[in-house]
Amino acid sequence: MAKNITPRDQDYSQWYTDVVREAKLADHAPVKGCMVIRPNGYAIWESIQQNLDRLFKETGHVNAYFPMLIPQSYLEKEAAHVEGFALECAVVTHSGLERIEGENRLRPRGKLEENYVLRPTSETVIWAMYKNWIQSYRDLPLLINQWANIYRWEMRTRLFLRTAEFLWQEGHTAHATAEEAVEETIKMLHVYRTFAQDYMAMPVIHGLKSEGQKFPGAINTYCIEAMMQDKKALQAGTSHFLGQNFAKAFDVKFQAENNEWEYVWATSWGVSTRLIGALIMTHGDDDGIVIPPKLAAYQVLAMPIMRKNDDNSAVLSAMEALIKDIKALGVTVKTDDRQNVSPGFKFAEADLVGYPVRIELGPRDLENKQVVVTKRHNHEKVVLPLDKAAAELPRILETIQRELFDRAQARITENTKELNSYDEFKDYMAADEGFALVHWAGDMEDEKRVQEETKATHRVIPIEGAKEKGKCMLTGKESGQRVIFAKAY
């Protein structure tokens, strides 16, 4: 167990806070509710960004950038949208500052003719531009993504999971038909699922959000839901079918092949730096964070073990040759050859920041023509012949990636239970047992009641799985399939 990290089974919430701090992932900013993402944390975000960006471009999307200041009148154009975000908006009302006479203080100077909102999401400003860019069916589909920062006024914050300002990507697409827009919505949902499972080694349940949980202004919202180690749910990504709501609000029409003018159909979809929090809580342990090989900036930490006051040139030369062979196989490597730090300190630091594999080579190892490989996720040590170690590493990394996923998948399987009555559901939630698969036919008011009484929320209507019929656990009405309720972040 790492120094200064509270054990998970003692206080999971404090464990998370300790890990973020001790692994130097992020810190609280001077601005209330905001965070500073430190280099270790930003390296994870860069890897998320690079891999997702490639997946987006493979599906035909391109990147653009839109302003972070949005005229207040734009938000007012789509009723459900403004209602959903109004309380989270930070508003810019003045331009410039001036000194207060006789005081060492400043005050706002020029009142703006119209207030601006720091973007809580970009549908409105983007659709104002799409009106200028779309005239004909030949301009469709328009498949644009942007990487940006977002500001939503938050009073209760937790680093990465919920902060006032955060980083994300948001895709905004325009289509000629509803069918094409729905296809896009589902396609991007599957891109998120692929990324979560194949890169983050984080199993997710994908499906539809309820009416009470969908995105303001959407016809349908789809999501991926993950289970953290404390058995709470975390929404890891969303994809929205927006219908023609924003097209009508901003009068975005196109001339169809039959020369008729029609409103376009829209989608939006996004994930954020919340994924870093999901990664920590899915794989981390009492020694620090665990990064899956496919997402690690450096998959291997090379650590030559040197004797003080000795000639260590042979060890360094052998490690350098090994590193060259490893890199030639496409594996990323970082070297820790500091001589003023003890090996024990280096080992603890490596565990803390989550390098998937550590390789050690000291004088005795060199004599025996071997290296010691330590797997971060289970602390297993393997001794390999020096001349075969590089060739073995890709296989070891693949095994680690698979074992991380399997371990997280087992957690979902073991902590998901079918329940049939509201009484057993309440007992299950009171004991913090995990995901509840229940029949549901309630409305938004029923959802609020369940949340007030149990702190659990409707998480997702799964796309996959049996669609058995039954009775709603709360209302007794007919239900076509089971849905997932859980306590959540």
The count of domains is 3
CATH fold-level assignment of the largest domain? BirA Bifunctional Protein, domain 2
Q: Tell me the fraction of residues in β-strands, as a range.
A: 25-35%
- Main sheet: which strands, in order across? 3-7-8-14-11-10-9-22-25-21-20
Structural class: alpha+beta
Give the biggest sheet.
11 strands, mixed
Radius of gyration: 26 Å
Please, what is the average pLDDT?
Answer: 96
- The best one-word shape is globular
Q: Give the strand tally.
A: 25
Low-confidence stretches: none
Describe this structure in words.
Helix 9 (313-328) packs across helix 12. It contains 14 helices and 25 strands. It starts with 11 loop residues before the first helix and ends with a strand. The longest helix has 26 residues, at 389-414. The chain is α+β, with helices and mostly antiparallel strands and 489 residues long. It folds into three domains: 12-95 and 108-283, Bira Bifunctional Protein, Domain 2 (BirA Bifunctional Protein, domain 2), CATH 3.30.930.10; 298-395, 3-Layer(aba) Sandwich (Rossmann fold), CATH 3.40.50.800; 416-486, C-terminal domain of ProRS (Translation Initiation Factor IF3), CATH 3.30.110.
